[in-house]
Design brief:
By secondary structure, this protein is α/β, with parallel strands linked by helices. The chain has helices spanning 9-21, 38-48, 61-68, 77-85, 102-108, 127-132, 148-162, and strands at 26-31, 53-59, 92-96, 112-116, 136-140.
Length: 164
């Protein structure tokens, strides 16, 4: 079941140690993943292709509100976590409430840290930790035209157009 992929910090730390002992290459990425769309799935599939295990750090509802403002997220963290966990390319989902995933990255110490192309590698949170451990930091090409904000704007425009 996909909900079995959603782990606590303690479970994630334990499993990361097991994966490393088995010499699996751990890839980590993070985000809000509010209103999951095909840009997200393409990005996550590309991230998974960089290693053996893909761990996704998911911003908690509180964290998303701090980043995106009131009214966000659209979907609650439990729903967002279940949607991510249902994807074949995602091996583990772990929720974090901090403003950034720095502490979570420090806990996992992935081999590869990935973000979307809207991030310069030197600006990616946790890059220092991963590079110090001999890992890689990768900014994947940004898929133009895909964003939750754009989706929300389209929905708002449709509501105005149809008087709902």
């Amino acid at each position: 079941m996909s909900k079995d992929k959603i782990k606590s910090w303690e479970e994630t730390a334990f499993l990361a140690g097991e994966f490393k002992a088995a010499r699996a290459r751990i890839v980590f990425t993070n985000g809000c993943f509010d209103l999951l769309h095909s840009g997200h799935t393409q990005y996550l599939e590309q991230a998974k292709a960089l290693g053996d295990i893909l761990i996704v750090g998911l911003n908690s509802d509180l964290s998303v509100r701090g980043l995106k403002g009131e009214g966000r997220p659209i979907l609650a963290e439990a729903d967002r976590a279940l949607l991510l966990a249902a994807l074949e390319c995602v091996d583990l989902v772990v929720i974090f409430s901090q403003p950034t995933p720095y502490e979570l990255i420090d806990l996992i110490r992935p081999d590869v840290l990935v973000k979307g192309g809207d991030w310069k590698t030197e600006d990616i949170v946790g890059a220092d930790l991963v590079l110090a451990g001999g890992g890689e930091v990768i900014s994947l090409p940004f898929k133009a035209g895909y964003s939750t904000t754009r989706l929300l704007q389209r929905i708002a425009d449709l509501e105005k157009e149809h008087g709902n």
